[in-house]
């Protein structure tokens, strides 16, 4: 029974990944299963609507029931952004001792959605719900760095950039260069760009369609979370963000 279930799932995954419908013999060769076995599995799956056959060439592809089940599953609380992110935030704070945050994209700003505070007496606290600019925050820059070039250039052309501190990147050229670097390394930094004495590092979270919808960040006073330490923690923040993305159904970019 378990072997049959495994084989049926192998068939579904093969059909879902194929660019076009597949024949029984193609599936047999790809999966290393006898033609008769593949045919029986396809008949069972077709009976439940999980695969469909094109009568003109007798090839098989995903059926409507497969899409319906996936659509219904996507609404489960298990796939909610907050539910997926909370354990990652907790792990980040426990590992780094700094405040961790979930920031969600809202128009041309990001809003603090979830937070796990640092255990230190001296710690940063940003009220959940507060909205901040994209261009001068690590979470905002992590999201900006993933945007399609046309959308990102429109943002740079249309959004006025206020110099919150002497370190704020206000020129389009400087910000463009910083976003390119952020995209290359997978995480973004805020080196006292919005508040003096505050340093942050953030990485993007993607949904199942590959769209960036949020960012994970850690933030702390710069005398404890220096820019050098933030850079060293970047891969860890990136790994947690990628785990969140995977839990939301993201399978990676080409």
Topology of helices and strands:
Elements: H1 2-17, H2 24-31, H3 35-47, E1 51-54, E2 59-62, H4 64-73, H5 81-96, E3 99-106, E4 109-116, E5 131-133, H6 138-144, H7 149-158, H8 172-185, E6 188-191, E7 198-206, E8 212-221, H9 227-247
Antiparallel strand pairs: 1-2, 3-4, 3-8, 4-5, 6-7, 7-8
Helix pairs in contact: 1-3, 2-3, 5-9
Q: Let me know the CATH homologous superfamily of the largest domain.
A: GAF domain
| Approximate helicity band | 40-55%
Number of helices: 9
| CATH architecture annotation name of the largest domain | 2-Layer Sandwich
Order of helices and strands: HHHEEHHEEEHHHEEEH
Task: Write up what this structure looks like.
- It is a single chain.
- It contains nine helices and eight strands.
- The protein starts with a helix and ends in a 7-residue tail after the last helix.
- It has two domains: 72 residues, Arc Repressor Mutant, subunit A (Orthogonal Bundle); 171 residues, GAF domain (Beta-Lactamase, 2-Layer Sandwich).
- The longest helix has 21 residues.
- The strands form two sheets. A six-stranded antiparallel sheet has the order 5-4-3-8-7-6, with helices on both faces.
- α1 packs across α3.
- The chain is an alpha+beta fold.
- The mean pLDDT is 88.
- Helix content is 45%, strand content 20%.
Summary tags:
single chain; 254 residues; Arc Repressor Mutant, subunit A; Beta-Lactamase; six-stranded antiparallel β-sheet; two-stranded antiparallel sheet; 8 strands; 45% helix
